[in-house]
Structure formats: structure tokens, C-alpha cells
Amino acid sequence: MTRPITAGIDGSQESLAALAWAAREAVRRDRPLRVVHAWRFQPHEGLEAGITGDADSQAQWVHTAVTEAVGTVTERHPDLEVTTDVVEGPVVDTLAAAAAGAEVLVLGSRGHGPIVGFLLGSVGQQVIAEATRPVVLVRAGEQPSAEAAGREIVVGQQGEPEDSADALRFAFETAAARGATVRVVRAWTLPPVFAYSPGSLKLLDEAGGLEPYEKRALAAAMRPWRERFPDVPVEEHVEMGSAGQVLLSWPEAQLMVVGRRAHRTAVGARIGSVAHGVLHHADCPVAVVPHA
Q1: How many Cβ atoms from other residues are within 10 Å of residue 225's Cβ?
Q2: pLDDT (tens digit, 9 = 90+) per residue, 194-230?
Q3: Ordered structural domains, the chain, with CATH
Q4: Of 254, 261, 236, nearest to 156 (Cα)?
Q5: Low-confidence residues of the chain, pLDDT below 70?
Q6: What global pTM score does this model have?
Q7: CB 23 within 8 A of CB 76
Q8: Which of these, 85, 56, 69, 57, lies nearest to 11 by C-alpha position?
Q9: How many of the other CB atoms lie within 10 Å of CB of 49?
Q10: CB 29 within 8 A of CB 4
């Protein structure tokens, strides 16, 4: 079964930008587009003029908004296969379920529609933390020109080669579809002296120091991806600093890709600090890719 590119919309400008981004990606990857609108009935508070408080009227408003949004997409991409699902129910659960069957779930970075939007701060973070597939966040005003050649896809690599394999795979597949360059960034910091073992000290000595060691580690992690995607240009960058700060130092990226492990707490799943920081401060769309 071919996984669709799935866009979650809620009527906000941010979600419409996400829908446009998802449609372009579906065309590039030759995949169908699925549009999901998850909503909850509200009696009367917070509704815009012209939307009454009964459930039937709100449902009709939602269906009309989805039809209009999809109409804009099909007009721009007449050959694109599009399906729609309007679901009244728990928003996080609905979108996490939609992500499970998708190649990627695309959402607006913020939402505040007249019917409860799904990206109201912590709710959006819960969707990302619960999703088992990549989630891309897109801000309002994102233009197709931002995907032009010359703007790189920036992805973070850390730890052992397998630790970032899913994020690297997503970055290279996206770059291959766009004809873009992948810039792979590995950030490093000075570890506490007591963290060194005799074996690690020997490896660092043989490598000539910390930075050469990190460069060799990145090169080793990149070797299989260079072989798998020989036509994708690659830039490798190693820099001392926090991972989030180093990633955000590339403001001209067309897409930023970060891996994440969901941290379980007493109040639910939470995304890691690097993904959290990049999501809040990146100017371009951000893809958050869960580790297997």
C-alpha cells in the first residue's frame, strides 16, 4: 500500500500553508494526498460570526471549509489524487492515528480556528510526541520559492550511525525528490573528564583530538547514505555547541530535520529539548522524525 502525504487542517492560515506544502510534496513524491480535519463540538464560546452553536451547523461549516481548501489544491494540482476525512473526536488521537498510516503528517505550526484548532501549544506537541511517523510543521506564509535550488535541507546527526538513521533517511529522500543538497550537522560539547574511559581516551588520542574524532564519526555515519543516494549533494558540518543552536545557525535552510525520542512523564509524552527548541525558533518548515 502506498502511504499518502497527510495534511491536518483546522481552517487557520497556518494549516492551509501546511496543506499547500503537503500537496507539493505529494506531487514530488508521486504519492496521494490525504486531508484530515479533526474537530470538537463547542456549544457557543469562541465562534466567529455566522457560525451557530448547534452541532449540525458546526459540522456543515467544517465540511464546507474542507471542501474549499481541497478545491484550491486540486485547482493547482489537477492530477493529484486527494481524499478527505472529517472526524469529530479527540484531536490528538485522531491526528496520531492519521500519522500512523502516512508517509508524513503535515501540520500548521499554530492554529486558532473558530472550531477548536489542533495546534494550540501543548496539543501540537502531544501530536508530535505520539506520532510514529515523521511530522512536518509549516508556518503561515511559507512560499514555494523557499524550496528553490540552492537552499539546503539541514539535518542533525548525533551519537552512533544508527542513532540518527531515521532522520537521515527522511532528509535524503526529501532531497532526492527536490534535487536539493543535504547539510548534515553534528554538534559536540566537552564532556566531563570523569566520563572518559581508557578506551575512549585512546580513540581520541588516535584521532588527534575531539573535533577530528567528531568529524570521523560523522563521516562514518554518512558513508551508507552517500552510497545509497549518490546523486544527492552532501555537506558535512561539525561544530562545538548545543545541537539546537548549531542547527539554527543555518537560517537559509528550506527544511530542517531533527530526530526525536518521546520522553514519557507522569503527565504524558514530551519531545526532547533539541526538537522543542528548533520547532520554536526555526524560520523554515521543520520535520520531526521519531527514532525506531
Answers
A1: 21
A2: 455 555 545 555 555 578 888 999 999 999 999 999 9
A3: 5-142 (3.40.50.620), 148-290 (3.40.50.620)
A4: 236
A5: 43-53, 110-123, 149, 190-209, 262-270
A6: 0.85
A7: yes
A8: 69
A9: 5
A10: no
The x, y and z cell numbers of residue 196, run together, are 572518559
- The DSSP string of the chain is -PPPEEEE--SSHHHHHHHHHHHHHHHHHT--EEEEEEE---SSTTPPTT--SSHHHHHHHHHHHHHHHHHHHHHH-TT--EEEEEEES-HHHHHHHHHHTSSEEEEES----SS--S-STHHHHHHHHH-SS-EEEE-TT--GGGGSTTPPEEEE--SSGGGGHHHHHHHHHHHHHHT--EEEEEEE-PPPGGG--HHHHHHHHHHTSHHHHHHHHHHHHHHHHHHH-TTS-EEEEEEES-HHHHHHT-TT-SEEEEEE-PEEETTEEE--HHHHHHHHH-SS-EEEEE--
Q: What pLDDT is attached to residue 267?
A: 47
pLDDT at 121: 57
Task: Report residue 177 CA to chain centroid gap.
Answer: 16
How big is the chain, counted in residues?
292
Tens digit of each residue's pLDDT (9 = 90 or more) over 85-100: 999 888 889 999 999 9
Residue 102 has what pLDDT? Answer: 97
Q: How many CB atoms lie within 10 A of CB 255?
A: 27
Q: What is the residue-wise DSSP string for 76-109?
A: H-TT--EEEEEEES-HHHHHHHHHHTSSEEEEES
